[in-house]
TrEMBL record:
Its main location: endoplasmic reticulum. The chain crosses the membrane at residues 164-183. The keyword rRNA-binding does not apply. It comes from Opisthocomus hoazin (Hoatzin). Keywords: Coiled coil, Endoplasmic reticulum, Membrane, Signal, Transmembrane, Transmembrane helix. This is Transmembrane emp24 domain-containing protein 11. One of its GO terms (cellular component) is endoplasmic reticulum membrane. It is found in: Endoplasmic reticulum membrane; Membrane. The keyword Transferase does not apply.
Length: 196
C-alpha cells in the first residue's frame, strides 16, 4: 500500500487468542528525479504499534526500513496494527510518497531449516510431524474462535428479532387503541348532535 511520509496507516487483523502473528515489511521511498520507488529507504524507519481489542498496547517499537515484527495475542478479536514512518520532517513539508510491502502471517510456525536438512530421516519426519500437529492445533483454535463469533452474532440477531417483535406488538396495540378511541369519539359526537 502507499502512504504519505508522516501518515499513519492501520490494518485490522482478526486474531484468535494465544496465536503467534509474524509480519514482514519493506519500505520504499518515491524518487522525484528517477520517477520511481527506490529499492530501500535509507535513514527511514517504521514505528509499529499493535493494539488489542481492549485498547491495550501490545507492541510499540521503532524498526528500520525493512524488517520483521511479531507478537502473540492474549485476547481473541480485532487487533489494530499501525505503521508510521519516523520521518523528522514537519507534516506540511513531508510530501514524499512511501510504498510499504506488508506480509502478515497469523499462526505461522516455521520449521528450523537446520533440522530439516539433517541427514537423519527420523528426526526430519519427527520435526515435520510436530509442525503438522502445531498447525492442527492452530486450525482447531481458529475454528473455536469462529464458533464463538458465530454464537455471539446469533445471540445478537435473536435479541434484535425479539426487540422487533415487541415493537410490532406495541405498534399494533397503539393502533387498535387509537381506532377504538376514534370510533367512540365519533359515536359520542353523532349522539350529541342527534344525528343517530
Amino acid at each position: 500500500f502507499h502512504s504519505g511520509e508522516r501518515e499513519e496507516k492501520c490494518i485490522i487483523e482478526d486474531v484468535p487468542s494465544d496465536t503467534l502473528v509474524i509480519a514482514n515489511y519493506k519500505v520504499q521511498r518515491w524518487d522525484i528525479h528517477k520517477q520511481e520507488f527506490l529499492e530501500s529507504a535509507p535513514g527511514l524507519g517504521m514505528f509499529v504499534t499493535v493494539t488489542t481489542p481492549s485498547a491495550e498496547v501490545l507492541l510499540s517499537k521503532l524498526y528500520g526500513p525493512q524488517g520483521t515484527f511479531s507478537f502473540t495475542s492474549h485476547l481473541s478479536g480485532e487487533h489494530v496494527i499501525c505503521l508510521q514512518s519516523n520521518s523528522t520532517k514537519f507534516v506540511a513539508f513531508a510530501g514524499s510518497k512511501l510504498r510499504i510491502h506488508l506480509d502478515i502471517r497469523v499462526g505461522e510456525h516455521f520449521l528450523d531449516e537446520s533440522v530439516v536438512q539433517a541427514k537423519d530421516k527420523v528426526n526430519e519426519v519427527n520435526v515435520r510431524l510436530e509442525h503438522l500437529i502445531e498447525q492442527i492445533r492452530h486450525v482447531s483454535k481458529e475454528q473455536n474462535y469462529e464458533r464463538e463469533r458465530e454464537e455471539k452474532f446469533r445471540k445478537t440477531s435473536e435479541a434484535t428479532n425479539s426487540n422487533i417483535l415487541w415493537w410490532a406488538v406495541v405498534q399494533t396495540l397503539i393502533l387498535i387503541s387509537i381506532g377504538i378511541w376514534q370510533i367512540k369519539s365519533l359515536r359520542d359526537f353523532f349522539i350529541s348532535k342527534k344525528l343517530v
